[in-house]
Amino acid sequence: MNRVRAGSRQFLARFAYAFVEQKNGVLTSTIIDRGIIVRKFFVVLLSILLLLSGCGLAPEGPESVQIDDKTYKTGFYGTLYPYEYSLTEHTLQSDDLTLVRIFHDTFELYHADVGSYVEGTIYCEENQYEQALAYYANPENYTFFCTLGVNMTDGTRAQTVELSNVDTVMFDELLSFADRSYYAPFDSKHNSGVETVELPMPDNTVDTRLMFFKESNDALFCSNKGNDYYIIDNSLYMVYQYDYGHGEYEKLIAVKVPEDISTYFVSFMEPFLKQDQL
After folding, report:
1. Which of 87, 122, 137 is the last residue of a domain?
2. Are 120 and 100 in contact (CB under 8 A)?
3. For residue range 28-58, what is the model confidence (pLDDT) as tens digits?
4. Of 125, 168, 235, 242, which is most buried with the most CB atoms under 10 A?
5. Domain identity same for 150 and 245
6. What's this model's pTM, rounded to 2 decimal places?
């Protein structure tokens, strides 16, 4: 079996910080998050942006495929990303699509190199589709995490903690908010609908960056790991862009998280943040 760890697109948002400079002992980007181009790195960063937007990666995959009188469907995992799985040697072939069987204890699942993102698409045998849909919609089948802080040049590393007692409804609402509010480099219509605010640039030696995500307990799927958050003046903000102003200024472009979600996470994360600051 071939072990695959996917999730490439969600991490490309972090690779967009690849050109870095040392500021206050922290590795910080000289470009705006998710897509503003830095002078002589135009070509490299444009390639990254094309990957972020899903352009030129793979053809769009069909919602269902019929092979040998069986139907295989996708769409049962919502906005999650294929993450970690083992491929078997068993394949199915349609006229223009190859499905490779995934080793899974419960469902008959197949991977195909099609879809909007580099992770490809997972298909489920139609007779198990509703069962799989219910399984991956059930919060009891996930583990919830938050990564605290950033990697510092003094050797301090970001720490990932499990949020075992988190309100899963609130957590999913936060993820849904992020899915509606991120910066899309090539989608001005989407961006025009996102209300942003300008804030002072966080000092990562003092302010703790937060990154929330969840993973299915079978490790097959995870949520986006490309969205950063900060608690500022007792409110939770999601990072929209880090604007370094070509060295002339620094500011944070952020989206304020809805009040009920913000209030919950500001309170819930307090003991974790106190521990992180010790």
Report:
1. 137
2. no
3. 433 333 333 333 234 344 444 444 444 444 4
4. 242
5. yes
6. 0.81
